[in-house]
Amino acid sequence: MGFRKKKKVIAARSAAELDAMQAAGEIVGRALQNVKAAATPGATTLDLDHVAEQTIRDAGAVPAFKGYEGFPGSICSSVNDMIVHGIPSADEVLKEGDLVSIDCGAILDGWVGDSAWTFAIGDISEQHDRLNRATEWVLMEALKAMVPGNSLTDVSWALEDATRKAESKFDVTLHIVDGYGGHGIGHEMHEEPYLANEGRPGRGPLIQEGSVLAIEPMLALGTPDSAVLEDDWGVVTVDGSFASHWEHTVAATSGGPRILTPRY
């Protein structure tokens, strides 16, 4: 008699653990809000890093990024053609028309919150605005797939499908950055599984009630291809085109997806 191999599942967190993760995530949300308020022409990305770190530490948490595999900042600050992992710098001065991605993490009571958003400095071009609004929309549409019973790549497919729909909705050509995606999260910032931002549905471990993923579309205007800078951190588009990055930590619950990194 044959048997069917039991499918793997993504680890589940209890209701209390999800509350603890949201407590960390809410600190990240406040840090992002404070950083955006401080992001004016003439501010440096290092100024923004100080704002985020102060917000996190004042809340009794610890910056999750600082020291992670040697990363020197409390945020990743990625401007214009930089997709992710930009190192904050006193030499990087923000100006009108910049598109700024801020990725931030905090650890509270042993649990990690991780979230990112992208915003403009003053007025930006219509094309760059469409790119950014489209990327946010893709995240919010795709996280709807974070429900018990779905497979990991159902979320990947939701991200890909939403990206294609966003092209028509926002009248913009979008490229899914190749080789980067989301991840499991809990006591560590990066846990299994890796979540691709595109792919066929119905594959990978099952999402169960209490499973948590960091979902993070990264879209660029000109190319899916990227390169890593000499600092071994910053990732830029190979053609200099602008990119946008949005992320939420999301739990699957019986009542639907629960965003654990709200921005009130």
Give your account of this protein's structure.
This protein has 264 residues and is α+β, with helices and mostly antiparallel strands. The protein is built from four helices and 15 strands. Strands 8-7-9-14-15 form a five-stranded antiparallel sheet, with helices on both faces. Strands 1, 2, 4 and 5 form a four-stranded antiparallel sheet that branches. The radius of gyration is 18 Å and the shape is globular. The model has no long low-confidence stretch (mean pLDDT 97).
Summary of the model, kept short:
This protein is α+β, with helices and mostly antiparallel strands.
Task: List the topology elements.
Layout: H1 15-38, H2 45-58, E1 62-63, E2 75-79, E3 82-84, E4 99-108, E5 111-120, H3 126-142, H4 152-170, E6 175-176, E7 181-184, E8 191-196, E9 212-215, E10 218-220, E11 226-228, E12 235-237, E13 243-245, E14 248-253, E15 256-259
Antiparallel strand pairs: 1-4, 2-4, 3-12, 4-5, 6-10, 7-8, 7-9, 9-14, 10-13, 11-12, 14-15
Kindly report the average pLDDT value.
97
The neighbouring-strand order within the major sheet is: 8-7-9-14-15
Shape type? globular
What percent strand?
25-35%
- How many individual helices? 4
- The whole-angstrom Rg is 18 Å
- Number-wise, the strands total 15
Distance between the termini: 56 Å
Quick tags:
264 residues, alpha+beta, four-stranded antiparallel sheet, 4 helices
